[in-house]
Amino acid sequence: MNTYKDYLKEIEDRKELGLHPKPIDGAELLSEIITQIKDVDNADREESLNFFIYNVLPGTTSAASVKAKFLKEIILGESTVEEITPAFALEQLSHMKGGPSVRVLLDLALGADAAIAKEAAAVLKTQVFLYEADTSRLEDAFNNGSEIAKDIIESYAKAEFFTKLPELDETIDVVTYVAGVGDISTDLLSPGGDAHSRSDRELHGQCMFEHNKDMQNELLALKEQHPDKRVMLIAEKGTMGVGSSRMSGVNNVALWTGVPFSQYVPFINFAPVIAGTNGIAPIFLTTVGVTGGIGLDLKNWVQQKDAEGNTVRDADGEPILKEMYSVATGTFLTINTKEKKLYNGDKELKDISAAFTPQKMEFMKAGGSYAVVFGKKLQTFAAKTLGIEAPQVYATSKEVTIEGQGLTAVEKIFNKNAVGTSGATLHAGSYVRAEVNIVGSQDTTGLMTSQELEMMAATVISPIVDGAYQSGCHTASVWDDKSKANIPRLMSFMNDFGLITGRDPKGKYFPMTDVIHKVLNDITVGDWDIIIGGDSHTRMSKGVAFGADSGTVALALATGEASMPIPESVKVTFKGQMKSYMDFRDVVHATQQQMLKQFGGENVFQGRVIEVHIGTLTADEAFTFTDWTAEMKAKASICISEDDTLIESLEIAKGRIQIMIEKGMDNAKQVLKGLVDKAETRIIELKTGMKPSLRPDANAKYHAEVIIDLDQIVEPMIADPDVNNDDVSKRYTHDNIRPLSYYGGTKKVDLGFVGSCMVHKGDMKILAQMLKNVEAQYGKVEFKAPLIVAPPTYNIVDELKAEGDWEVLVRYSGFEFDDNAPKGEARTGYENMLYLERPGCNLCMGNQEKAAPGDTVMATSTRLFQGRVVKDSGEKKGESLLSSTPVVVLSTILGRTPTMAEYEAAVDGIVLTKFKPSTKQLVR
């Protein structure tokens, strides 16, 4: 096949979309381009030179290997290209970010030609993406008396790759662009429906602002009018980046407003400036740091206070906000990085020190967090090799130690897993490098994670990681051409890298589309574990889990570490008794409602760890709470369990991991068997009392303590997007929790969805029992609205089949998924019946299937953002109301919200989640 001709055809196709040539990552194409470069009479030579110099992806791509090899030939004089001198070839290598380029530089630096060695060494001193094979070569050469190796290692010990970088500009002039009023979901920046294009950065950039060309043109106009200023993207009266980490969202903002990372690598920009009245969502803020960006908490609107200091409220009881300063589109502001202040002209507006901590400023200087992480590891290696103490170059990790103060659960976990500290007991506010136990990658961000791994030149998973999983859940609904092209390639890469993969590239086991968070919840078998996952709902009921962008996931896979401040915690305990007809989802929603009421509308959960003393709920059920904490805007959550409850959870997890082993999903390193062994060891520790379950200290200090009164929860609770609120800043938040009676049994429901990560096996059994109840009451089950059911995992389906519940669901359904003939295209309409869909995310992801525009959807999922589950129509705003499984099921049977009487009759005799607060002391 003539790959170059195919490439030219693709270029013409992309021109019709207004796109440049796609960056080259394949060896075959680049090899042909090099052949054309060598042929001085070739008609395509000039164009081939441009492709070679300016359009090859760096890192460990196969194209990067071919490019590095050819550059080496030029430097050694084995090939001659008039336009690429040996000096220019070395410059090209310096931009290739490790892997084959570092191998070539080491070959040259440790080679026989002294002049070339000196020049290559100078380039090597600027590189940070070195792995053990690279540093071992340097160490061996050093031990054998190589002066060049000694010179390079001494440079690394001084961290000259960092110290010689330019300092941050003291002032950064920006012009504001308000992207929306109220919370801005990352869907606005990178819509779920465009997930397939995320690895093609320029193509994906076209979906910015959900393809709103008017907004895109406004942004371009600002850039053109103010070329001396950076554009700052703002969420007015809201939080920027709620919903998910969405590295592709930050990539898009950087592509439109940021700074090119290298003139030789297209469409990779860094250093975006992003802000929100209520700051940046915690998970999204981490992503901003990956790109060396600036994330500001503006606080330009504040609650008005009366003379006594009480919040002034309107007729509806809502706080009245006062504008402290304007950030309207087109406003000129100045960020002073030295003073850490925000100015409008000479007027100081706000202290922004939180955005310019020493660590964040290092990310900005280095062009992102990766270079800092690898730089620190490289400096440590060099100092150890030289037998010296590493000079203090990077900011010292902040260590906060408070004499006589106990530790919260998250503080205990970080103290156990921290590396490179002084050994002091660390409290919240400390900045910690910590080892990671479990890592998860999901399929719509996984392609970007694989790209990040290639660009940081990583080839194998860190031995520190106990286990890692690559899912196929976000593309489970529709096995279309995009999925067929992307997912097998992703699974092959991740399987080779060392992850357990939902699909086997060799086809030895049946493809699994289990929801990533559910799998991670099962394979996490340590209550002291740290988990990093490529999704905002990486919230485990064991250990502490942090949702992360694709890059942070890549870093965790490659290094086995993550760096972050130890967050503050909010303690949540329960009192009273749960009504028998209530579902635990109602407790989850009531927690958010009661918290807001207790703290005058202030969300004390935002950016903090929720330490929930859940005690008596096993991992499946407790996960319902931890999963929702992403919508509470918490950074993470931790479940404090009784020993017996944790043992039960670990037995369940052990059994499910064993099923994965029996299906043939384990790898050569027997990662899954290792997790079973770890679970068994932990169970023995708990049963013998050698090491009880994780508990905070009795004298730990919390930012706040919330007590949830179960007696107050007397009817089902619904999170309502309030799509028609006159104040647009109050639409599409998860803070608007309403009781079922608010709707009076009259609100029309067009579609129901039971599925995704917020449900477990118990929900499927509740569904089956409700259908039997309804049939007994009315003689038949008739749906007045479609009901979409997507179990989260195949294990659950198998267990339901074994227990007879799946047969019940099939009897009432009009469609049952068939893995031998998966859907090839998304549904465009639904009939009034029950659909049993393939396990996976389904409607919650919004990238493949959606409800009809303008529908009112009642769902068990987590997403109520505009356009996520349902788009607006010309006549009506789409709305996604979030509730428990019983409410969803009954709403589709009735075609409307039920009354309390109808609800209680439908759940009569059904054992919903039993939750009785622990009577034991869950502290040490």
Describe what you observe in this structure.
This protein has 924 residues and is an alpha/beta fold. The protein contains 31 helices and 33 strands. The protein has a seven-stranded mixed beta sheet with strand order 8-7-3-1-11-12-13, with helices on one face. A six-stranded parallel beta sheet has the order 30-31-29-28-32-33. A hairpin with a 4-residue loop joins strand 11 (332-336) and strand 12 (341-344). Helix 4 (62-76) runs parallel beside helix 6 (100-109), helix 8 (132-143) crosses helix 9 and helix 27 packs across helix 29 (805-812). It is globular. The model has no long low-confidence stretch (mean pLDDT 94).
Map the helices and strands.
Layout: H1 3-15, H2 27-38, H3 45-54, H4 62-76, H5 86-94, H6 100-109, H7 114-124, H8 132-143, H9 147-157, H10 160-163, E1 171-181, E2 184-185, H11 186-189, H12 201-205, H13 213-225, E3 230-236, E4 240-242, H14 247-257, E5 259-262, E6 265-270, E7 273-276, H15 282-290, E8 294-297, E9 301-303, E10 321-323, E11 332-336, E12 341-344, E13 347-351, H16 358-366, H17 369-386, H18 409-417, E14 418-419, E15 431-435, E16 438-441, H19 443-455, E17 467-470, H20 481-497, E18 500-501, H21 516-523, E19 530-533, E20 544-547, H22 550-559, E21 561-565, E22 569-575, H23 584-598, E23 609-615, H24 619-628, E24 636-641, H25 643-662, H26 671-688, E25 704-709, E26 717-719, E27 737-739, E28 751-755, H27 761-778, E29 787-790, H28 794-803, H29 805-812, E30 813-816, E31 834-836, E32 856-859, E33 879-882, H30 885-894, H31 900-906
Helix pairs in contact: 2-3, 2-4, 4-5, 4-6, 5-7, 6-7, 7-9, 8-9, 9-17, 16-17, 19-20, 19-22, 23-24, 25-26, 27-29, 27-30
